[in-house]
Every structure is written in structure tokens, then in C-alpha cells.
Amino acid sequence: MASESRDIFSGRSSVKEFLFSKSGGKSVEKKADLTLQSTRDALRSRFPNAIWNPPFVDNVLSRLSGADRFGTIFVKIDPFDGARNPKQETREGLVLDLAGILEGLCDKNDAGWGPIDADRFGCYFVGKTDHECLQTGQAIQEELSKRRKETVSIGVAQYPTLNFSRSQVFENAVKALDHAAFFGSNSRIVFDAVSLNISGDARYQEGDVEGAIREFQAARKLDPKNINVHNSLGVCFAISGDHQRARECFEQARWIDPGEGMAVYNLGLLSLMAGDREAALSLFLESDRIKEGVYEVVFQIGRLYLELGTPENGKRYLKNAVRIRPASAPAYRCLGECSIQMNRIDEALSAFQKAVKLNPNDAASLSALGCLFQKVGENPEIALSFCQQSVQISPEEGLFRYRLGELYFRCDKFDEAKEELKAADRLGHDAKDLLKKIEEKLEGKAHDNGF
């Protein structure tokens, strides 16, 4: 049985290049509707004093309107023997045994219980704290183990907690139950900052960034020193465009733990987005010193060295990037660009070919391959084909249009060259000199033909 001590935020993920700690372990399953009328009828017949009028929470809240403190326990039947649809007699016996345990505990306290849905039951205990309820949850699990091999998981929350309303405390118990799911069957968890972090992560994955921010802000109030919460909140602010608040979150995480490489890396991304490449590179290098071998970090370092005109340094980091993540087309593309700057054409060709093999729609690598194939004397039609594909994929990229126009020019396809070069010039890539050469060529041909 796992409780609150296990670190479930060991995984790392990137969102639009920002790094954050992502909930690991088992994902929370959507509940299947296994309710059978016969089971419900048997339960209601044997336990008429349970809270039956739905919804459960609304019914309970009316009973707790005057309570200054109460604890709540949500109990979920764990999947057993890997079966999602257990035999009816097995399930009915389990439900009745569990209900008997809950009623026995509630009868001894100022408490109540009832079914929430097919797999979950809820209890409330007036005057009890969350940790007292956690002990009660343990008693439920232990008593059930004496009767059956099947297990249940427990999520616990209490009122008051921060500024959560009475109804939100029941939502917190659900979040604790979802938190418990990451530890497997027969787990029990008290609602805490990690529960909110998991909930925030889930909201983010669903595209609800504002909802994620609310969860992470509440988690920060519960545990102000949780670096994962600060970092995750910072990522949400950054993605939302609030870079100042994002920076404050990352700086806070860095202050709490100077050895936290993700926050340093994310500060580097903010500097890069602000156009300060030197500051970004310094922060990326600091992040790499804290923890080596993180793909996103070494890739950004290699790319920045390339952009800052030191391709030999960039190549060293980018080779490490493709070693860490061999399926990274962007890393191979940047490695190819480093090799071009170092005039190592064969190495550049190899890198760009690998990039295109990994991502056939990598327009930049296709365009570069076209230029290189022309440079080494390959069949010009092959070179043209690569450049044509790049323009088909990214027609608004002036450089790609220029390269295609230049190849048309070299193949004496002047009309096609003019069309591409004019497009390149219109898109901001200066093509006036080459267009002038084409006009001179066309004038020369006209003169030779006697016009």
C-alpha cells in the first residue's frame, strides 16, 4: 500500500519546449457503468438508512450546513483479477460486504454514507480531521481484507482546508482518489498539493489552461515549497503569454532548489523568447551542468551555438542530442546546418537525409538537400525535386523559394526562376541581384536571336 511519501513526479515532459514534471504511473480510468438494478435493489433493501437520494453531495451538504469541521472519505472499488466486468454474484457480494463495513463505522460516529455511482461510495464524519479519516480508511481496507480478496482505494479530504467551500471538499476527495490511482490498488491518500498538481496536469492535457492555473495556484498555497507546482504554474503562465508571472514562478522554484534544472531551462526559454540569446545560452548551460543528458537542454544549446556562429560547439551538443533522441529530425537538421557552416558537405548531406527520413515533411532539410545535391553535382532533377517539395510544404518561406528559383536559373528555366525569385523577394528574402542576372540572360538571348 502506498501513501503520501512516494514521488510520482519523476517523469519529465515538454510543452511547446517548456519543461515540466508530468504525473507518472497509472492514468485515472474513466468509470465504466457496471450498475445492475439487482445489486442496487439488494443494497437498498439491506441498508435503508444509507443516503440514497441523489446527488449524494447535495444531500450530505444539507446535513452539514452547521458543521465547523468534517472529514470525507471516498471509496472506490479497485479492478480485480484484471476484469472490467466481474461476475454479478462476485460484484454483488463485494458491494454488500463493503456497504456493511461502511454502515458499521458510520453507526459508531456522527457520520453518514451512501453510494455515489457504480464503483464509488462516499462517507462523511462530523468533527474528524483528514488524518483521522485516513485511519478510518485504513480500517475499511483492513476489514474488507478479512472478508474478501478484492480491494478498494481511498481518497480523503477535510473541511476546512484553505478557502475551499464545503462542496469543494467533496471534489477534493475525488482528486485524492484520483491521486491514489497512481499507486495502484489498495491505496489511500489524503488530499494535498500533489493531488492538485495531478488535477492541474490533467486539466492542462485537456486544453483547460485557466483551470490548470487555478489548480496549481491552490497547490502552491497548500505547499509553498513544492518546486514542481511553481514550475508547472510557470509553464501555464508562459503558454498563456504572461511571461512576467512565468518568470516569477521559475525564479521561485530556482530559489527553493538551486539544483532544479527544469526551472533554469525554462528561464532560458523565456530569455530566448525575449531575444536575449546570450542570456538564454548561459541559462541552458547552467541547466546542463545541473543535470546532463536532457535532450531539450542539449538541443537548445547546440542550436544557439549554431545561431551565434560557433558551429563547432553546436555540433558537439547536437551530436549528443541525436544520441539521446535518435528519432529527432530537428536535431539532425541543425546538425546538418552546423556541418554546412564547417564546410563538411558529406556530413551535412548525411544529417539532412536522416532528418528527411525521420520527417518527410521537413521542408528546411528538403530545401538544404536540394542545394547540396546541386553543389556536389548530383542529377539536377533530383535537386529540383527536393526544393520543389520544400516549397510545396512551406510556400511562405522566402529562403526556400529563393533556393528553388536559383536552381531553376542554373537549369536555364528562366521563367520558372523569375516566378520563384519574385515570390522570395515579396516574402522578404532579397532576390533582386539574381533577378537582374536573369533579365540580362533573357536580353542576351533576345539579342542573339535577332530581336
Core attributes:
451 residues, alpha+beta, Serine Threonine Protein Phosphatase 5, Tetratricopeptide repeat, five-stranded mixed β-sheet, two-stranded antiparallel ribbon, 20 helices, 7 strands, elongated, disordered N terminus
Structure report:
By secondary structure, the protein is an alpha+beta fold. It has helices at 37-46, 56-63, 88-107, 130-147, 166-180, 193-205, 209-222, 227-240, 243-256, 261-273, 277-290, 295-307, 311-324, 329-341, 345-358, 363-375, 380-393, 398-410, 414-426, 432-448, and strands spanning 11-15, 18-22, 70-77, 111-115, 120-126, 152-159, 188-190.
Write the layout of secondary structure elements.
Layout: E1 11-15, E2 18-22, H1 37-46, H2 56-63, E3 70-77, H3 88-107, E4 111-115, E5 120-126, H4 130-147, E6 152-159, H5 166-180, E7 188-190, H6 193-205, H7 209-222, H8 227-240, H9 243-256, H10 261-273, H11 277-290, H12 295-307, H13 311-324, H14 329-341, H15 345-358, H16 363-375, H17 380-393, H18 398-410, H19 414-426, H20 432-448
Parallel strand pairs: 6-7
Antiparallel strand pairs: 1-2, 3-5, 3-6, 4-5
